[in-house]
Design a protein that fits this description.
This protein is α/β, with parallel strands linked by helices. It is about 40% helix and about 25% strand.
Amino acid sequence: MREIVLSTESGSDLPEKLIRKYHFKVVPMHVIIDGKSYDDGRFPLKKVYEYYERTGQVPATAAVNENEYASFWNGLKRAHTNAVIMHFTYSSKASATHAAAVNAVKGFSDVYVIDTLNVSGGCTAHMVSSYEYIEKKKEEGEITDFAKLAEELQALAAHAVCHFIPGTLEYLRAGGRVSNAQYIGGTLLKVKPLIEMEDGSLIATKRYRGTMDKIVDRFMKEFVEKYKPKRDCLYLMYSMGLADNVLTRMAENATALGFLNYEYVRTGCVISCHGGKGAMGLAAIRE
């Protein structure tokens, strides 16, 4: 049976623990600081925040380009002779990475591109679910129709859900995602927008008022009530700066809500450029 390799971009924020467990392969997206391009995940995350504190601007981010994809996949093919690659992209509606991957894959006969329609922990949830799906298919017999398998993995994207609450509106304002008036109003009232993934797009759907430790219980309860996720695993997303007591409470809530397992997913440099410090989020797979 041919080996199936699952790969993605760094914007999926895969925890190192899961990268090792499932043998996922990751190609870096990029962050531009002071005119220099840095590979996401290969420089200290605090550099993103230091740049904002110094300049009042958020770093620009850049997608993986076609040449980088080709080099990445060729490297995987050399390391995994005769393997089939299933590549999971950051949402096509949130980044140019998917379009670049679709163009780059034309030069390959055994690489398939799958749009996660998600970001960060949502991508993580989709990839883990896909790995488990492939393992189950292997138990049923040899996989020979890889185009069909890719279609089935693409269909799983509809079951992955993800949403998060920025810890601050400063980065959204600096990046032009909220107006100055919205920023001032939200800051004074301690209002935080809920950002949900809807058909691959980031949409502000409602607001929470208060500090993270005050809203974490309601946030998680409403997520479970709305999406009715499978209880095998809940992905607890956060960015640097979220208080330890909130992280602990998220884990306690995951257990209390009936989840058999949970995994922390810390946002990397790319998504931290948009969400800033102290963000909190959840991702899971729906029934």
